[in-house]
Design goal:
Layout (H helix, E strand, L loop, with lengths): L1 H5 L1 H5 L13 H10 L4 E6 L1 H8 L14 H10 L4 H8 L4 H10 L4 H17 L5 E7 L5 E7 L6
Parallel strand pairs: 1-2
Antiparallel strand pairs: 2-3
Helix pairs in contact: 4-8, 5-6, 6-7
Length: 155
């Protein structure tokens, strides 16, 4: 149930300064977070949205961008997955399906790698350094992957 995901930040973080449901506009949300002086941002989402962010998309609405399965397959190569598994991920139906394949075949670290790339892009959208954590969850809000990047700014 997707409602569990929306309660994730309040269930897991007692030190939140503010909770903003950004929807599809991660570029705008991070730019504004930087402008408002936030020092830390935590982005929580599922594989579809986070893989789009990891692909450099600033806007993640389904009508505006697709999950890049070739990018997820490339990540599997970086994780040294067998070529047959890389091809399975490339041929998956959805981002969720790709992640399910990776996890079932012993590569749950794909979730962490998606988070790492997404954190890099999120941080780069802010006009000033922000510590950025990205957490990938399943549909029940259970964490599957995470990455935190310090506030050193890379453009």
């Amino acid at each position: 149930d997707h409602r569990d995901l929306h309660s994730f930040p309040t269930r897991r973080s007692s030190d939140l300064e503010v909770f903003v449901q950004m929807g599809d506009f991660v570029g705008f949300a991070m730019r504004e977070a930087g402008r408002k002086g936030l020092r830390k941002a935590t982005i929580v989402g599922m594989i579809g949205k986070l893989s789009k962010i990891a692909d450099g998309k600033k806007m993640t609405h389904a009508a505006g961008s697709e999950v890049n399965l070739a990018m997820l397959a490339q990540m599997m190569q970086e994780l040294r997955a067998p070529i047959a598994l890389v091809e399975q991920v490339a041929g998956a139906n959805t981002g969720r399906h790709a992640l399910e394949i990776a996890v079932a075949q012993g590569f749950p670290q794909l979730a962490d790698l998606v988070c790492e790339r997404a954190a890099h892009y999120c941080r780069s959208y802010a006009p000033r350094p922000i510590d950025t954590t990205v957490i990938l969850t399943d549909f029940a809000g259970n964490p599957l992957g995470q990455s935190t990047l310090g506030g050193s700014h890379v453009q």
